[in-house]
Design a protein that fits this description.
The complex is a heterodimer. By secondary structure, chain A is mainly alpha-helical. Chain A is 81% helix and 0% strand. Chain A contains 8 helices and no strands. Chain B has 8 helices and 9 strands. The chains are: A mainly alpha, B alpha+beta.
Chain lengths: 184, 317
């Protein structure tokens, strides 16, 4: 009888830890899809941004076509997650460069569509940063669960592997400053 | 920083009010004196064994003193109101012309509950001294709030009601510079909260909000954060914002609580002092008089800068 109770209790604990780890793993997947959603949102901003900028400038064609190219690559279905992240990083720096150059085009700078796009862009930037931080928190949580005793026992048995956190770019750690970004 | 010394208009207002204050102060002293005489007469009568004549002799000055105090009470109220509107009001105006104090208004109890900072529903709610205005592009307001709940205690002689503070201090509200739809709540960490957090993270969650583990270790040690949306909470609480909140918290005696809801941010500052009250028995002409009130006004006004709420580059203008 006592043996049965002990086995039952052990089984319950095992189920509890297993469920808890699976729950945490799912949170990681969920957090990753949040980054994806944010990235898509940002990719969708590109066509409008390019259209508006085109109307006012003749000199930024090179940058614009590079941005369009990156965007097309980003939204095409056959890129891996890491590729997507690197496309996003390149896109981000190109657009940032473009925003700084806007200084040279006062008409564009004053265009309400452009101003709107600019703030939506920075908004998406910060949202992506938030999504990445959420992902990292979920990964840390999951890693803690599978590396700490007694979770580590089940993790080894059931082959749960630790995951890697995303490296945060230095500029994501600080708040976006309007001054630096738009060079006002 | 606002100073009385350099402000002639404020000095004039204070000089006029000082006359009123002296009148109220001397009348009140007279009232209290008669009440004291009444009590002394009655007590000494009792001591000498003359209970009935002592009671009668003591009652007369007691009633007279009471009438004096009652008659001056309207003037006292008007004087306190004038102090708030004219003295505090002009101190506010010299800091920023948009600032306004409304002594009889406050933050209504339903808004207090909406902040979701406090889990208890108040049974008694008092609020006064609503200050509102803009700091740059950001509108804000704050008011004194005292909320309490009651418990019934069984004693030998029946039940006794006991009151417990939910919150006493200043509730500050500002328009937040980013768009969001959910609720994020930041509370000081206590033992119960820590245990509850562990429980809801590892076993079951009892409410609709998740615990948010944030990467700033000092922030996580000081506060516990709940939110309806993990990503949105981090969108609001950026690494820079967490540092700013910690800084704000370092400058206050008791830990602050915050909530982000309905596109606004609320900050609750627990304080034991009642601000913006006119002195009756102390002179108004003391240059240090307004120091504490001004400090608190400046502090509230500076929050907007401190938390960088005027940076509006996130699609919300």
């Amino acid at each position: 009888m006592a043996a049965l109770i002990i086995i039952g209790a052990l089984l319950l604990i095992a189920i509890f830890f297993y469920n808890s780890i699976v729950g945490k793993k799912n949170q990681v997947i969920n957090a990753f899809s949040a980054i994806d959603v944010m990235l898509k949102k940002r990719f969708d901003l590109i066509p409008n941004l390019v259209e508006v900028v085109k109307q006012y400038t003749n000199y930024e064609q090179g940058t614009l076509s590079k941005i369009v190219e990156l965007r097309t690559k980003g939204v095409s279905g056959n890129v891996s997650d890491t590729e997507k992240a690197s496309i996003d990083a390149q896109l981000s720096s190109s657009v940032k460069g473009l925003m700084v150059n806007v200084e040279n085009y006062p008409d564009l700078k004053a265009n309400s569509n452009f101003i709107n796009l600019q703030s939506t862009w920075t908004e998406s930037e910060e949202q992506i940063a938030a999504a990445r931080r959420t992902y990292n928190a979920a990964v840390t949580d999951y890693n803690n669960a599978i590396m700490m005793f007694p979770g580590s026992m089940f993790a080894n048995l059931l082959n749960f592997q630790p995951m890697v956190v995303l490296a945060t770019a230095e500029e994501e750690r600080k708040n976006i400053s309007a001054k630096e970004l738009f060079n006002n | 920083m606002i100073s009385i010394a350099g402000n002639v208009a404020l000095q004039n207002v204070l000089a006029t009010l000082e006359i009123e204050r002296k009148k109220i102060s001397s009348t009140q002293k007279k009232g209290y004196l008669f009440i004291a005489i009444g009590i002394i007469v009655a007590l000494s009568g009792f001591a000498l064994g003359l209970a009935v004549p002592a009671a009668i002799a003591g009652l007369a000055p007691l009633i007279y003193g009471g009438i004096i105090l009652y008659k001056i009470s309207d003037e006292l109220k008007a004087y306190k109101e004038a102090f708030k509107v004219n003295v505090i009001g002009s101190a506010l105006k010299s800091l920023d012309s948009s600032l306004l104090i409304e002594p009889d208004k406050g933050i209504p109890d339903y808004e207090f509950e909406q902040t979701q900072i406090f889990s208890q529903t108040p049974d008694r709610y008092k609020t006064e001294d609503l200050v509102s205005g803009n700091a740059g592009k950001t509108t804000f307001y704050f008011a004194e709030v005292h909320a309490a709940y009651k418990t019934e205690v069984q004693t030998k002689n029946g039940t006794r009601t006991e009151w417990h503070d939910i919150f006493r201090g200043i509730l500050f509200c500002a328009d937040f510079n980013k768009n969001f739809v959910g609720v994020t709540i930041v509370k000081p960490k206590d033992l119960l909260g820590t245990m509850g957090a562990w429980f809801s993270k590892n076993l079951f969650s009892f409410n609709d909000k998740d615990i948010i583990s944030l990467e700033n270790t000092e922030f996580s040690k000081t506060f516990i954060t709940h939110a309806t949306d993990q990503v949105e909470a981090r969108y609001i609480l950026t690494p820079a914002m967490m540092e700013r909140i910690l800084n704000l918290n370092r400058n206050t005696k008791s830990s602050v609580s915050l909530s982000f809801i309905n596109s606004r941010m609320y900050i609750a500052f627990p304080l034991s002092r009642n601000y913006f009250e006119a002195p009756v028995f102390k002179t108004l002409l003391n240059p240090e008089l307004l120091n504490e009130d001004i400090t608190v006004i400046n502090f509230m006004y500076e929050i907007v800068n401190e938390l960088d709420l005027n940076t509006r580059i996130w699609g919300k203008n």
